[in-house]
Amino acid sequence: MENEVRLTKSKRSLTNLAARDDLDRSLRLRVWYLYEMLYKKSDEEHPLTTPQIVRLMQEDYGIYVHRTTVPYDIALLEAAGVKIGRIRRQAWHFYLAERRFSMPELRLLIDAVASSKFITEEKSEELITKIISMAGEPSAEKLVKRPVVTDRAKTDLEGGYDIIEAIDEAMTENKKINFNYFDYDNQKRYVLKNDGKPYTVSPYDLIWDGDFYYLVGYCDEREAMRTFRVDRIEDIPEVTEDTMAARPADYSVKRYTKESLRMFTGSERKTVTMRFKTHAMKWVIDRFGPDVPTEPIGDDEFRLTADLYVGPTFYRWIFGFAGAAEIEGPAEVKDAYRQMLKEALDQVEE
C-alpha cells in the first residue's frame, strides 16, 4: 500500500512537471511570436493596438491570448532588452522601436546589391527580397518602390558565393588554394590563363573594389604578389594542405589597394611623381583618399608623389584626365606612357 501511494505521488509530480513544461513552452512561444509580429507588422507609423495583437496572434499563430496578457508579454520583451514604443491615443498602441537597420541603411544595401556586377540577376533579387524583409511589412512598400539600377552589366557566372566561401576557409585555416583563372578571346569564349594550369596562391585578402571582388595574395607561379578578380576564377578553388606563404613585411592591404589602381597590378612598383590641374583634386582624393600628401604648385596646380604599380591601367587612368595630369618622373615611366600614346595615335592615323 505504501508503495502504491509513493507511485501515485510520483505520477502526479511528473504530470505537474509536464504541465509546467507545457506552460513554459507556451509562454516562450507566445512571447517570441509577439516579437515576430511586432517585427513584421509594426513601426512608428503603424503601431498595433491590443485588440489587433490578440486577433493576429490567433489568426497567424493559432494562439489565443487574453487582452490583459499583452502588456505582461510586452514587459517580458522589454526585460529581455527589446525596445518597444508606446503611443497613447484612445488606447495604447505598440511598435518595435529599434531595428538593426534603419530605412536609409536598407536602401543603401539594396542599391549596392542591385548595382553590383559581381552578383547575378537572380541572386540580386533573392538578396534584395531578404533585405526588404528586415524593414517590416508596413515599410517594405517604400523599399519595393526603390529606384532600379538599369542597364548594368551583371555576371552570368553562378557559384560566386561558393568561391568566396572556399577562399574564406583557406584564409581562416592559413592554407594555399589552387584554381584556374580565365580571360576572354575575341568571340567572348573563356580562355584559361597560365597555359591552362592552375595557379597556386596564398590568399591574404578579399577586397571589394569597383563593383567586383578581388583576391590579393602571393602567387607561387609568378613568385610575386598578384590580384585576381573573383568572378574570373573558373570554379571553386581547392583548399590545399600547404601552409600559405608569410605576408611580405611591407604588405598593407590599405596601401596595396591605393597603389594598384582598381586592383590591376603592373609588373613592378615604382615611385611616380605626377602633376595635376587643381580641378582634378577631387578625382585624386577619390582614388587615394583625403589624407593623400599633395604639394600646391602656384594657384592652379598640385603635385603628387606616390608608390604605384605601374602598368596599362595606371596609364589609362592618367590619360583619362584629358590633359589635366602629367607624369613628371621617373623617365622610364614617362617613356612607357609616351610609347603607349604613340602606338594608339599610329592606329588612329592608319
Reconstruct the topology from this structure.
Layout lengths: L1 H40 L6 E2 H12 L7 H11 L4 E5 L3 E5 L6 H13 L5 H13 L3 H8 L15 H14 L1 E5 L2 E3 L5 E3 L6 E11 L2 E8 L4 E6 L8 E6 L9 H8 L7 E10 L3 H8 L5 E4 L3 E10 L1 H8 L5 E5 L1 H19 L1
Antiparallel strand pairs: 1-3, 2-3, 4-7, 4-10, 5-6, 7-8, 8-9, 11-13, 11-14, 12-13
Helix pairs in contact: 1-2, 1-3, 4-5
Question: How is this structure best described in words?
Answer:
This protein is of the alpha+beta class and 350 residues long. It folds into four domains: 2-96, Arc Repressor Mutant, subunit A (Orthogonal Bundle), CATH 1.10.10.10; 103-144, no CATH class; 166-247, Roll (SH3 type barrels); 260-349, Alpha-Beta Plaits, CATH 3.30.70. It has eleven helices and 14 strands. A five-stranded antiparallel beta sheet has the order 9-8-7-4-10, with helices on one face. It has a four-stranded antiparallel beta sheet with strand order 12-13-11-14, with helices on one face. Helix 1 (2-41) crosses helix 2, helix 1 crosses helix 3 (69-79) and helix 4 packs antiparallel against helix 5. The chain is elongated, with a radius of gyration of 31 Å. The N and C termini lie far apart (115 Å). The model is unreliable at 13-19 (pLDDT under 50).
Looking at this protein, list some descriptive labels:
alpha+beta; Arc Repressor Mutant, subunit A; 4 domains; 11 helices
What's the shape?
Answer: elongated
Q: Which CATH architecture of the largest domain would you pick? A: Orthogonal Bundle
Strand content: 15-25%
Q: Can you tell me the number of structural domains?
A: 4
Distance between the termini: 115 Å
The CATH H-level superfamily of the largest domain is: Winged helix-like DNA-binding domain superfamily/Winged helix DNA-binding domain
Q: What is the CATH topology classification name of the largest domain?
A: Arc Repressor Mutant, subunit A
Number of helices: 11
Tally of strands: 14
